[in-house]
Amino acid sequence: MSIERRINERKASQKSKVLFDLVEGKGITPIDALNDYGCFRLAAVIHQLRSEGHQIKTTMIEDEDKRYAKYALDKSNISLSDTPIYNF
Questions:
Q1: Single pTM value for the model
Q2: Using an 8 Å Cβ cutoff, are 27 and 71 in contact?
Q3: Which own/partner pairs from 81-86 qualify as long-range (CB within 8 Å, at least 24 positions apart)?
Q4: pLDDT by residue for the chain (88 residues), tens digit each?
Q5: Cα dihedral 2, 48, 88, 36 in deg (nearest 10)
Q6: Which of 34, 42, 58, 66 is surrounded by the fewest CB atoms within 10 Å?
Q7: What is 12-28 written as a DSSP string?
Q8: Where are the domains of the chain?
Q9: Residue 44 is inside which H or E element, if any?
């Protein structure tokens, strides 16, 4: 198997895991993504999901001298008829 294919499979796996947790109502921070999915580039995964049409909101968290993003699925503008069925 080529290195490119393994990288693409890993990204798809990380993206699927992130999407699953967002659909489950969990908020995700970059440190959560690193610990839970081995994902160093959460913002890139979120960008891909947004480009696929997922409504994801970003909340900036300020903790002492740190500032980071927390991502969550924006369910405020989704009706049941618009909700896709997720198969993981």
A1: 0.72
A2: yes
A3: 86/19, 86/20, 86/23
A4: 565 555 565 556 889 899 999 999 999 999 999 999 889 999 999 999 999 999 999 999 998 899 999 999 987 755 444 555 555 4
A5: 80
A6: 66
A7: HHHHHHHHHHHHTT--B
A8: 3-77
A9: helix 42-51
Quick one: which H or E segment has residue 33?
helix 30-37
Tokens of 61: 């968290």
Q: Do 45 and 58 contact (CB within 8 A), yes or no? A: no
State the fold for domain 3-77: Arc Repressor Mutant, subunit A (1.10.10)
Phi/psi of residue 37, nearest 5 degrees: -125, -5
What the block records as the tokens of 37 is 């999915």
Cα separation of 44 and 11, whole Å?
10
